[in-house]
Amino acid sequence: MDKYIQLFIQHLQNERRLSAHTVLSYQNDLLQFQKF
Question: Which of 6, 9, 10, 36 is 20 to 30 Å from 21 at the Cα level?
Fold first, then answer.
């Protein structure tokens, strides 16, 4: 699952060009969800 989260985060950074704060929020939310 970590691999897919990382790929999605890279997509947000490179393709969608979201701000660093937005990407960090997505990453934190996904990692918390993964622990659930």
Answer: 36
Measuring CA to CA, how many Å separate 14 from each of 4, 31, 34? Answer: 15, 20, 23
Taking alpha carbons only, the member of 21, 19, 23, 29 closest to residue 10 is 23
Domain spans, the chain? 3-35
Task: Provide the Cα torsion 6, 10, 16, 19; round to 10°.
Answer: 90
User: Distance between CA atoms of 15 and 9, rounded to whole angstroms?
Assistant: 10
Note whether 9 and 29 are within 8 A (CB).
no
Model pLDDT for residues 1-36, shown as the tens digit of each residue: 799 999 999 999 999 999 999 999 999 999 999 999
